[in-house]
Every structure is written in C-alpha cells, then in structure tokens.
Amino acid sequence: MNEVYEFLKEAQTYYLATAEGDQPRVRPFGTVDIFEDKLYIQTGKIKPVSKQIEANPKVEICAFKDGKWLRVAGELVRDDRVEAKAHMLDNYPHLKGMYSAEDDNTEVLYFKNATATFSSFTEAPRTVNF
Fold first, then answer.
1. What is the pTM of this model?
2. What is the extent of the structural domain holding 33?
3. What's residue 62's pLDDT?
4. Mean pLDDT of the 5-22 span
5. Is 130 inside any structural domain?
C-alpha cells in the first residue's frame, strides 16, 4: 500500500471514476493519505461525487507518471472521525480554507478490498491487494 501511496503522491493528480446510474463519471483528484494503515482520499459531502460514492462505493482511480500508470479498484468507506479528517487536512494545509475537520462537509474515505495494478508498455502488470 505504501508503494501505491508514493506513486499517487508523486503523480500529484489522479482520476477518480464513479458511476451515476449507468453513466460513468471521472474527475481529477489530488488528495491521498495513509491513516491507521488505510489509504484515504478526501472530498466534500456536498459534491455530486460524494453522492455517487454513497450510492455505489465501488470506484477506480488512475494515475500516470514517468511512463507508468497505476489503477486502484475497490470500495470507498466514509470515516467521519475528526481525527481522520484532521490527519488529511494537516497533510494538505491549503485545503483548510475550504474544509475543516469539525465541519459537516469534509469527507474522508478509505479503500477497502482494493486491488492496485502497476502497468507500463515495457513491463508486465503487477498487482498489490490491500
């Protein structure tokens, strides 16, 4: 999981895919954190992406850097604890102008039953489960 985290941090931007009914939805994200040995992302509960995840927690993210790409498929689980939100925001202090660990909008979610696949055009794919 640490290798997945490092790849996402270095890539800086990854793309999160969700479903809205039968329509796929994809958007750029940049937050990633490890808290209590789980891989977390962050968003706002008022955003459509939050409602899509609540309706169907199965998601996939994809990032690309240095000729390699990473896909992570799994389920996202909301963690409403202040400690989890604070940990994320401490790692992304520029978000504290929009989000707070104590507000009702900040949402952090961790991956459950995740499979990460590292790929490139020059190497065989490699998977990591967490």
1. 0.96
2. 2-122
3. 98
4. 98
5. no
